Each structure stands twice: as C-alpha cells, then as structure tokens.
Amino acid sequence: MTAAEEKRFATLAAQYALCGHALVRGHAGQSAAFYAVRWGWIKPLASLDAAARFLREIGGAK
Predict the structure, then answer these.
(1) Which pTM value belongs to this model?
(2) DSSP 30
C-alpha cells in the first residue's frame, strides 16, 4: 500500500471503530482485501472504496 492508502485505511478504520465495527486487512491468498467485523459477523470488502461505501451504509460516514 502507498502512504496515501495507508492513511486512508487508518482513517476508515477509526471511523468504523466509532460506529462499533472493526475494519481489518485481509492476508495474501484470502478472498477479500479488507473485512468489516462486528460481534463475530464478517463482511468481505474488495477495496477501500467498497469499505467507504459500506461505512456509509452502516451510518458511520456523515
């Protein structure tokens, strides 16, 4: 990841935390680049753009 992508990930992860979720990175070989996690529930996310869209869906981005 570039420095800009790292910063965007960190910002999104903080926004997820504020609404009670976690945003984590996938590992090489996994089906998704990122995962949204809450109470054992896991949603695969293909990109940071997908993570930002899902954050809006759960009411975390204003």
Answers:
(1) 0.86
(2) S
Structure tokens at 60: 């975390």
List, edge to edge, every strand of the sheet that includes 34-38. Answer: 22-25, 34-38, 41-45
Tell me the C-alpha distance between 22 and 38, whole Å.
6
**Which residues, in sequence order, are bridge partners of residue 44?**
35
Q: Which parts of the chain fold into alpha helices (H)?
A: 3-18, 48-57
- Residue 44, phi then psi, degrees to nearest 5: -70, 140
Question: Over the stretch 6-44, which tens digit does the pLDDT of each residue have?
Answer: 999 999 999 999 999 999 998 777 767 999 999 989 999
Burial of 26 (0-12, 13-18, 19+ CB in 10 A): middle
CA quadruple 37, 44, 62, 1: dihedral, nearest 10: 100
